[in-house]
Amino acid sequence: MAAVTIRNLSDEVVDALKKRAKRNGRSMEAEIREALMRLAADNDSRSGLEERLDREHGRGRWYTTGAEINARIAANPRTEEDRRVAEEWLDEYNARPYDEEPFRDPWEHAERLRREQGQQERR
User: Fold this and answer.
1) Domain spans, the chain
2) What digits encode the pLDDT tens for the residues 2-41?
3) Rounded CA gap, 60 and 32, in Å?
4) Quick check: pTM over 0.70?
5) DSSP characters for 5-43?
6) 8 A C-beta contact, residue 78 and residue 85
7) Residue 29 and residue 34: Cα distance in Å, rounded?
8) In the structure, how many helices (H) and strands (E) does the chain have?
9) pLDDT of 37-94, one tens digit each?
10) How far apart are CA 26 and CA 37, in angstroms?
11) How many of the other CB atoms lie within 10 Å of CB of 121?
């Protein structure tokens, strides 16, 4: 079996682990081992922040995948007004001297990908 060394635990954490171990009738090492085994066996890999958000606002998903974003873009093509506003914004964006990389429009990117996929399917 592997051995693990944990450095730089605060005195408060060590005291809390000792109290918990005593309450459960185990050594501190056994208490830590049990806690780590429960943590490793848990398939829910959410962070403490996600846990708190779930408690306060109900369980949900706190992210959007790239595929979902691309699907929304594909389902909502730009209007002429959208294009005009985007061009104005892009002109302002590109006028900034401190940006090194040019902006890549997500609608144009999605359209290019669709065209490339269509060309590959025809081959």
Assistant:
1) 10-42, 66-122
2) 888 989 989 999 999 999 889 888 899 998 998 888 878 7
3) 30
4) no
5) ------HHHHHHHHHHHHHTTS-HHHHHHHHHHHHHH--
6) no
7) 9
8) 6, 0
9) 887 877 666 667 777 777 777 776 667 788 888 888 888 888 899 888 888 888 887 7
10) 15
11) 7
The CA R_g of the chain, rounded to the nearest whole Å, is: 26
Find out whether 16 and 25 touch, Cβ atoms under 8 Å.
no
Q: Which element (helix H / strand E) includes 78?
A: none
Q: Which amino acid is at 88?
A: E
Tokens of 34: 């049990």
* CA separation, residue 45 to residues 32, 52, 58, 68 (Å): 19, 14, 17, 22
